[in-house]
Amino acid sequence: MTEGFDPGSRYGRRHAARIRRAGNDATTDVATADHQGDQGGLPTEPFVGWHFVRSRRWLGYFAIAVAFAVVCALFGMWQWDRRNEAVRQNDQIAANYDHAPIPIDQVLPRSATWSNDLTWLRASVTGRYDTDHQLLVRNRVHNGQPGFEVLTPLVTAEGRAFVVDRGWVPTGNEQDAPDSIPTPPTGTVTVVVRLQQSEPRIPGRTDPANTDQVQSVTLPDVADKAGHPIWTGAYGQLDSETPAPSERAPLGWDRPSADTGLHLSYFIQWFLFAVGGFGFLAYVMVQEYRNLNQDDPEERERALDRQRRKDAKPKSDAEIEDELLTSGR
After folding, report:
1. What is the DSSP letter of 46?
2. Given this model, what pLDDT does residue 72 score?
3. Sequence-ordered list of residues with C-beta below 8 angstroms from that of 130, at least 6 positions apart, any chain
4. When comparing pLDDT for 21 and 121, which is higher?
5. Which of 27, 98, 130, 140 is buried most deeply by CB count within 10 Å?
6. Residues near 119 by Cβ (< 8 Å), separated by ≥ 6?
7. Is the pLDDT of residue 40 over 50?
8. pLDDT in tens, 159-203
9. What are the backbone dihedrals phi and psi of residue 193, each rounded to the nearest 5 degrees, phi first?
């Protein structure tokens, strides 16, 4: 039945297997074998193998998998960059937050001087508070409660003012303004602040006209209302005042949390998604290979081996329970 080709070859084994499965119709078997013998003894349906992966459909699948992996990699690197930025900020807080105060003229020799490395650095300023040009920053929330931050210019002996953010006060009960604002110390005061960069303008918002309120700590805009030349590169969040004020100062700030968040976890997850996409594609590829080549004797033997290994595995309690329930019906 395998005359005309090597009976030990894949095609020979496949041809012989097909003839054995047709044992119910010997006449048909002989006719089929004779017809195939006329064609050199080869099966009428060639072995498919892995040739299907070169089809247009599968090339499209590969392209989709690659595009998915690229997108996952981009999101993963974005999370990696965010983690690195969080680590940098934590290192900066550790270095600057408790640093010994440095005189403001040394830290900011020019009014517009600023570097991101100065964020949270403690600086000392000596002067007199000018409460006549005090400003309130709107829409500042603390523990879910709306309020304001109090900006008070501290005028130095040279006549230049440094903007001190003295802290947070709640919105009043009956008006869009604080019920009261704690009074700063009078006379010459030495304050220690933690430096912050001038905030950007909020798009679509303008400062309320004819009020002492502003939308953000945008120092070039604050300069128009400060009554003095000011440092426009940075302002300071109040840490301490000497002498101390006669009444409690506005609410200050908590130390920033040294937390990098879940960025590293998300970075790993995105790359696992990329690998998983190729893994899923490989799984589908193997399933299609088995379906297209199920008549091949070697593939049939592999399928039987897989089934034998599956049957040899110990059954779980759930499977045993299902069998008992089924047999009892």
Report:
1. -
2. 97
3. 152, 153, 154, 155, 161, 226, 227, 228
4. 121
5. 140
6. 92, 96, 195, 196, 197
7. no
8. 999 999 999 999 988 788 888 899 999 999 999 999 999 999 888
9. -125, 165
**Under a CB-based contact definition with an 8 Å cutoff, are residues 58 and 52 in contact?**
yes
Strands 135-142 and 145-155: antiparallel
Q: How far is CA 108 from the centre of its chain?
A: 35
pTM: 0.64
Pairwise CA distance, residues 150 & 189, whole Å:
17
Task: Report domain extents, the chain.
Answer: 101-242
Give the three-state DSSP class for 184: coil
CATH class in words for 101-242:
mainly beta
Question: Comparing 22 with 41, which gets the higher pLDDT?
Answer: 22
CA 147 to chain centre: 31
Give yes or no for a contact between 233 and 111, defined as CB atoms under 8 angstroms apart: yes
Query: How far are the Cα atoms of 135, 154, 202 from residue 132, in angstroms, in the given order?
Result: 9, 11, 25
Q: Provide the percentage of residues in the chain whose pLDDT is more than 90.
A: 50
